[in-house]
Batch of 2 targets.
Target 1
Amino acid sequence: MTILRNLRRLFFPHCCCCCGAPLVGSEHDVCTRCMETLPLTHYATLPDNLAALRLRGRVDCEAVTASVFFREGNTTQTMLHNIKYRGEIGLAHTMGRFMGEELAASHRFDGVELLVPVPLHRRKQRRRGYNQSLELCRGIAESFPRPISVDNLVRTVYTESQTHKSRIDRMANMEGVFAVRQPELFAGRHLLLVDDVMTTGATVEAACQPLLAIDGVRVSIATLAVAGDY
Ligand SMILES: [Zn+2]
């Protein structure tokens, strides 16, 4: 299936990477029909949204948003899978641009000075060849122009897939996973931490720890997707 799909993309690059339909007109990477079936959250304009509430009491952050709902078997799941494991970097840019449009239009994120992707461990990044969160940032920066901090926040501990762990296990597993190389580069700045998906929030919580330990740092959070019902 993957081989066939990849071959098809090789010879017909102008196909939707979610459903395989030919792209027309101004469509990029994903067709209008798939875009329309994406369950949008509209959280950018909603301060007390599900993603923000999930982090409340755990992370002291400014504004939190996620653009689309994720659940088993929906279009978002296909999209995330393609972005994360199938090298669909163009799709990451397209969705990042969409995230940036929402951030800009909401004006809740106007104070953000720097985009910070949640990093992969360097071993995982070498194997995958790219970091999907960084690619989302590149898309965001096109419609919400801010510089991207590429390698100041680092993942120092290699963690296995968290999918089958309980929430408590995930949190214990994430403790001390991230570090900041040069804290002075972030001091006093308002950072936007960017990730592909928020499930329990354990990853962004762990990534915020070394950031919020720096003098004067404020953190806002944007993920492409959030696990939850709609
Ligand atoms: Zn499609």
Target 2
Amino acid sequence: MPPEPHDHEVCRALFARLSELIDRELTPAQSRRFERHLRACRHCQVCAETLRRTVELCRRAGESPVSGGLARRLQAMARRLTAAGGPPTAD
Ligand SMILES: [Zn+2]
């Protein structure tokens, strides 16, 4: 399967609804579209996994949602990944 061309519009749309995806609040069609992009886009994958794990940890601990500091760091990471010029190529 050829890799999907990287489309930052999709990345931006995904990040805007990432929490909905994780909370399974999207329609099945929307989820499928995002899951397909996640498989093709490593940068979104890493970010989504990080957020997903964070959310899971918070739930498991029975604590309030992500702390302000961590939320800000995640948002900054999302902005960097989707900034004009493309994601970093360093691994
Ligand atoms: Zn992406």
